Amino acid sequence: MRRLNVLARVVVAVTMCTAVSGMAEAQAVNAQPLEEVVVTGSLITNPNLAKSTPVAEISSEEIDLRGTNLAEELLRTVPGTVPGVGPAVGNGTTGASTVNLRGLGQNRNVVLLDGARLVPQQLDGSVDLNDIPIALIERVDVLTGGASTTYGADAVAGVVNFITKKDFSGVEVTAADQINSRGDGNTARVDLLLGANSADGRGNVVFSIGFQDAHGLFRSDRSFSDPTIDSYGGGSGISGTTVPGRFSVTGQGTLQIDPATGQLVPTYARFDSARIGVLQTPFKRYDLFSEGHYKLKDAVEVYGQGLFAKNEVQAPYTVTGTQGDSVQIPYSNPFIPAPALQQFCAGNGLTQAQCAAAASSKSPLDPNYQTFTSSVFRRFVEAAPRQLDFDTTMFNFRGGVRGTINSHLSYDVYGTYGESDSLQTLIGNALHSRLQQGLLATDPNTCLDPSNGCAPINLFGAAGTVTPQMIAFLTGGPTFVTTRATLGTANLVFNGDVGVASPLARTPIGFAVGGDYRRNAVDVLPDIPNQTENEILGNGTVAPVSGSYNVKEGFVELIAPVVQDRPFFNDLVLELGGRQSNYSTAGSNFTWKAGLTWAPTDAGFKLRGNYQVAARAPNIGELYSPVVMGFDSLQVDPCAGPGITAASNLGKICLAQGAPSSSLGTINNPSGGFANITSGGNPQLQVEHANTYTVGAAFTPPRWPALSASIDYYNIVIDHAITAPTIGDVMATCFSTDQNPTLSVTPACTSIRRSAVTGALDGDAPGVPEVLSNLGHLSTDGIDVFLHDHFQLPIGILALDFQGNWTHSSKFQAGPTQLDRECAGYYSPNCASIQPKYSWSQRTTLTVHSVDLSLLWRYIHSVQYEPQAIVDAGGPDNAPLPQYLSIPTYNYFDFTARWNISQSAQISFMVDNMLDKQPPIVGSTIGNFAFNTGNTYPATYDVMGRRYGIQATVHF
Prior knowledge:
It is a single chain. By secondary structure, the protein is mostly beta strands. It has a domain at 2-220 and 279-318 and 544-618 and 687-723 and 772-813 and 832-865 and 881-955: Beta Barrel (Maltoporin, Chain A), CATH 2.40.170.20. The protein is built from 14 helices and 43 strands. β20 (386-406) and β21 form a beta hairpin. The two termini are 59 Å apart.
């Protein structure tokens, strides 16, 4: 009954909200010559055969009305699609932009260009959407649901197919500029498109060149994101890596140096480590594209396509610091104040005489020379902010021959090859080895080891006591990681019809059959500091990776009109498909699909359903990445805080995880809300399997040809999913009384490893294991609704379009004994990017003569903090502040006025977020660190504010 009520609400919304998101059915593709047709969701190119899989279309008209500059910007606003990594991700950015269909992960969908795969940039096989030149796109087809039978592995959640403009002739120049009402966030784009037909009319060639420069938006540019808010404690600042510095003292916890008195004291103010950050990353793109085809004879056509892109992404970060790193410090270090020295001596059990002797010893050869171990938190505010730069160069080529063998059979044979080379440069980070070398000093001017121009480091003073000479030695220069990926494919497809029809039908049975081969290889080449554990302060380890796989596949598809032109069976079409895959890494696998489309009458109403058994083989990163240390979001550590004793059950767990007994009662929560994790690949991984189905109806009445509407229910279930548990899952298996009622020391507890110095989960702690396995279970279901219509009014034409989504459920279970976690409508560290229950886009366009006036309404339903996350953290006492536990419904309105000056000239004016709606404030420690930044969720909610744009196109 609840689902029926929700369904009724969605249907009512359709009837009441006349809308446009520029989306329509894939079946609306106009009939074209056989070799030119691209029908997403099937390899059968005949568009007159009804397909059972719903495909959403983003038209070039919609792209133009939005003034969109990036493909990722366009896709993240599609209802039902969860934002992936992109310009709005500052922490954890890879320099790329990705798509995340249905929230099932960027590694579970395939990005295509004219139906062919593009070279990926990442270890997980994901394609960088920054490489897609928006100016060349005729339309974007979005198919959600399993598509492995048609497109091979990775298409578990679906595909995004960018269809380029064909047979363009002439010269077209487009220039666009955007800036917000506060005078920042400027983005400029220029594209030149050239095309020509051959003199004999048998061919065409297109060439384009484009440039884009997005200045980005910094956190200091907006009052809502500066200063950083702690979602749990309120106030500004979230990092315990402070200035003056903090030092662990055995039995006393972590204390801060008071430069005025020289004492170590327990109270300190947190540092705002996120102030120097971005809400939208600065970005530059240069792209070249060429495409051509020529008919050698009527039945033989050669064609080719080339894409080159160079992207530059810059992500500034706060100044470097030592974030709980354990170091050895001589008692005779010249910068330790006398009162602090006495505290260190007492904490480590030295008598007054021993302390005095150690403090006066200047040489390691002296028997009285001693060092002590301390975990140090000190922000080097004297240094310049860090800079993380990504320079990516990509090219992708495609060449082939296509044509017809006879009136019933055509062929297409082609190959592709692409390379992506991404250089990650980190500037301004201090190195642990140099910090340790600089601390091993007994003289203020000389290190015990003077190599590399060592400068003794003063961690015990106020801001300004770390000199430029010390900073220059600590940082030592930029560090680098290079990622190189290649993809080569060979494809052969025969399609057409068998020349005969079903006894009860008139249209012949259509088919496609063929095979393909592809080889993907990725090499990650870090420099020595990056691959040395704990060497780059505040960064995880990047291990070298070199891996590849190949897959050989054969496939067949059939679309068979079973009954036509009969009472109650105007059209009944059966769709079948199968694909046999052989992976060099995961063996053989078979996927299949079956669909049915039924039109009872010729009134334009049809019912459709599709069932698919899809699969995904483990990618290179999942197989070959070594286990290394990284970071994840964790605000509350159950072992932190006073009152924990060794005799208590909780204390026994903390000790079993490696915390020293002297640390109990003094353990701190992770600095900045970041706990250490260990994660990596697993060469034993196998193929994951998915069962997906859609059931729906579409209506395109012949007597009302302007109207088209559809409603589809989708259901996707992935078993044996290749997943790692969230940090909340791992912590809950040990510390939640739901899963460990008596708080016993279990194997799940001892898998978590703490710092042997402070007992915390940051610093040098191995941390929380997030191990990949095939034990995961993912599922999602919901309803998509589309509506399009237009009317002739006395003053012009009114066009109305609507695309809406209801996500009933989006669940993730890391293993059979762990929680089946619900994330639809919730946010938390366990639910990375926000997926609202309801979302829609509605566009209304009035065309009066040569002027289009268009209003886009974007709706995002309210969401709440994940209730289970509160349970996992130990109850309401460990929950975020009440004012951050929910986000209300958001409505955005974007307006476009477009003047078609002539057939060859057009100018558009855009105002996005007309009402200057400000984003919700939830603090910066309430969710996953990649998407919860700037005290909000910049990938979901508009952080720019009201933005003005102008775009002009001239065609001659």
